[in-house]
Write a structure and sequence with these properties.
single chain; 495 residues; globular
Length: 495
Amino acid sequence: MQAALDALNSWIWSPPLIWLCLGAGLYFSIRTRFMQVRGIGEMLRLLFDGRRSEAGVSPFQALAMSLSGRVGVGNIAGVATAIAFGGPGAVFWMWMVAFLGASTAYVESTLAQIYKEKDARGQYRGGPAYYIEKAMGQRWYAWLFAGSTVLATGFLLPGVQANAIAVSMHNALGVPHLVTAGVLVVALGFIIIGGVRRIASFAQVVVPFMALGYLLVAILIVALNVEMVPAVFGLIFRSAFGMEAAFGAIIGMAVEWGVKRGIYSNEAGQGTGPHAAAAAENAHPAQQGFVQAFSIYVDTLLVCTATAFMVLITGRYNVYGTDNTPIIEHLPGVEEGPGYAQSAVETVLPGFGQVFVALALLFFAFSTIVAYYYMAETNVVYMTRHVRNRRLIGALQLLILVAVGYGTIRTASAAWTLGDIGVGLMAWFNIIAILILQKPALLALRDYERQRASGVPLRFDPEALGIRNAHLWSGGGPRGRLDPATGESDARSRK
């Protein structure tokens, strides 16, 4: 069974997907005139601009929901795994995926805003399936994406997060996997039954708190070993381009694992981020594109880099060649994953490190599972939006609870393989779609920048821009006009 899964995974994550991810990011960077650089100030301003409504969450809540899906086991165990099989150079390629992927995140998230709609409860829903159907007119392709997303986020990916939680808790506190499974299932059931608002409220508190704590510990470790920072940067860059003798033979693995784990972590182009982006209340679709582009930086350039530097500075990692024999073996007998990060923090903060990383991973991974459920639910709603879907939603809730319970007790290698298959399937479908459907997102970017420069109240009129089927925005958008100085909407006055 494992051999068949590995074969399928290697086919999905073949070199064409690696270069498609990098190429799409470079292409969108050029088409958006590197908005991920020009727009950093705007990204920061928008994080705290705007308010939530009965239909949608605030931009900050949408960012937190998105980060809860992005910041997870990939930022801790995934980084260590990338270094183990791609060498330290894999970190450089994770950076490249993040930098280029920020523009990809803008395009897919703006498309999600443009083509979002309201569900039966009056809440915003959207994502790749919605913009594929409305903008491309290919419902069969939208269903392919929706089906693969339900499979990936409802069954394949949650097991990776749950397994990492179980492993780290067992390493740090000796908690049996079955106990971890029971606690996770009960806690997850309480949150997902509460719907999107409970998910948003949970994410906006947990994610920023744990990310800040994790970064502070990483900064402490780097500060205590500051003299090693130049050497670590040198090691990363030499390894990335095969200039380090020990890693010259695995330069291709550095690119492959850096891109694979980079996409797994920041999810740029994978199609998961647009689900949270569509749930946000904005005066203009491009606003959420900027916010979601910023989330890529937070995920990879901050959290993933924090893990990488902790592991490399303390030397708590192994590196394997293409034949899976050790090139460097600092931690014999330690399986790649959370154990490396736990060992790294433990060497600097004895008696605290393993427990801290276990708790950080618990909150990161659990919030990611919650976000996965929301994505799966959104696609079930898409496929059944013309019929009663309560029973199907109930079935989905049961499926993800089973997946989490099972994920805590299966082997880590099987969990990661299934997770990679899920990520790869979604990435193939979504990147091809946004390459075809990019024009509305680019038109929205120019329209938004023009309005911001002129200082007029923000308004998005899709018909004036030649964008069709953006029905929710007809007449100026869900909220009406927004005064850029006060942040107040005039929607109430127009009723």
